Every structure is written in structure tokens, then in C-alpha cells.
Amino acid sequence: MRSEPGMAAPASVLGSWMAAAVAVPLALVLAAAGQGLGALAGGCSWIGLSLPLDRPVWALVNQPQLNFAAGAGATGYWLGSWLLPMLAACAALGLRPRSRSLLVELLCLQIAWAAVSVAGSWLPLLDPADGHLARWLALQRLPAALLWAAPAAAALAGALPAIRLLALARRRRSDIGRLGRVALVVAHLAVPSGAWAGLAWLARRELPLSALGGLALPLAVALGLAWLRYPPVHVGRLERPTLGGFAAVAVAIAVAAAALWFGGRPLPGGRAAGLLWARPGDFNNIRPWVEPQPLRLPARPSPDPA
Fold it and tell me: How many degrees, rounded to 5, is the angle at CA 108 between CA 196 and CA 33?
């Protein structure tokens, strides 16, 4: 009797969805971190972040001068939110931990997929007026249509998690037909993308068609690969998910949900929460719709006098 799980098994699909619930918030954090690191490279001070569900994420920074955003030193500040998730998407599968656990494979797969679909394809098109790449194109006096180059390139990277998913599926059954391969892509990749779009809609009550179009690009590539051909069989053996593994992923989901709640939950008046760990300066990039909450550790009670 074979002990390896099939990718269409309910436990595998559930584990994949739980992994996606960790990976999508992580993709938002990666996008904010990419902007924050790019700002640091340009001479800024990184003071906080905001992770809204319905807007582009922002690394909150103190700028060295008023016109910093228009200078050459701000290139990483504007492009880092796309570049870092793309690097993570390309590295997540190749540099994954050496483990035979199916949940580890699914987590790495979903991290790559979320980095491609949410951070690489969705976020650049979510705000064509104040989004990171849109602002950079405007400051460089480049055509706004070039904004679509970002999700197009991300869609090509989306082939990596799709190929890995289908390769994992072939270990258990090497003769999966076209419809079966398409169904696997829908279950493991399309459902998390659709759930994210639905969550964003709940926060905003509307979704820009351009962002949905960007989200659909990597999914179209994944479905096209599933329709056209088999990938090579994944050579590593996998073990079935365990209750301990599911519990660990559930804890990670709770941490990810807390990060989204404290770092970007919707607030009245179309505002969103943010986190601050340093004092804003005179030249900061905090948007009018961000309501940052300073991080304060509880004060230690003073000892009673003897």
C-alpha cells in the first residue's frame, strides 16, 4: 500500500489552502519589505508599514529631503515592492528546506504563487494613480501602459509553482488527463487567488478591473501549462500531512491574520491601519488614508517602596 499522498486528496487540498492563508499575507509583507529596503538603500529611515487589503502596501519611511521620490536614489523605493517578491517566487521552490513533508512542499509552492499573483501581478495594478510602479513611471515620464509589463513578467514566473504542482501530482498518478491537470490548478492555485480577491472586495466593496486582469495573467499561464503538457515527475518522496503539521500551519495562519489586522485592517472613512516603530519626520511618506498605530511595549510596573 502506497503511503504517498495524492495532490487531489482532501488532506492535500486542505493543506494547500492553509498554506495559501499563510503565503498571501507573507507576500504583502515581502512587498512592503522590498519598498522599505529600497528606501534604506536610498538614504531613508524605515519607520513602519501599512498592509491594507484593498490598496498597495506601503513601507512608511522618513525621506532625506522633500523631493526624494523624484530622484535616482528612489528607484529601489519604487521598484522594491515588486522586485523582492519576484526574487522570493523564484527562490522559494529551489531553496526550500530539505524535507519530505507534503506540507512543506505546499507551503513553498504557495509562497511562490502568492508572490507572483498577489505581489507581482495584483498590487502593481491596484492603484494606477498612487501605486508604486505607476508613480515611478510617471516620475520617469514613461508611458503608463508599461505598468502591464510587471504582471506580464510575473505571469511568466507563475509557471514555476504550476509546474511543481503538476510534477508532484504525477508521482501518484503519471497519466493524469488534461481535465484532471486543469482541476488541480483550479483547486490549488485558482481558489486561493479568488479567495484573496473576495477578501479585498469585502474591504473595499469594489475591485478595479485592471487588478483583476493582472491577477488572471499568472492563472492563465498555469492553466495553459496544465492543458498543454505533462511536466517531469517530481523525484522526491513525500509523506502524508500529520496533525502536528496542520497545527503548525494553523498557528502560522493566526500570526499572518494578526499581521493583516494590526498592519492594515480597514478603518472608517476609507482609511487603513498601519504600524509605526519610529517617530515620523518632517519629510515622511505616510499617506492620508493610513492611520498608523505606534508600537508601544507595556511599561513595567514600578516596584512598591519597601
Answer: 65
Q: Report the candidate in 28, 6, 27, 3 with the shortest Cα–Cα distance to residue 15.
A: 6
What are the angstrom distances between the C-alpha of 114 and each of 92, 119, 177? 11, 7, 26
**pLDDT single digits (tens) 51-79:** 998 889 999 999 998 889 899 899 999 99
CA distances from 229 to 163, 166, 182 (A): 10, 10, 11
Residue 182, CA distances (Å) to 149, 170, 189, 223 in order: 26, 13, 10, 6
The three cell numbers locating residue 36? 522599505
pTM to 2 decimals?
0.88
- Per residue in 233-287, pLDDT (tens digit) is 665 667 788 888 899 999 999 999 999 999 999 898 889 999 999 999 989 999 9
Bridge partners for 290 per DSSP: 272
Residue ranges per structural domain of the chain: 10-294
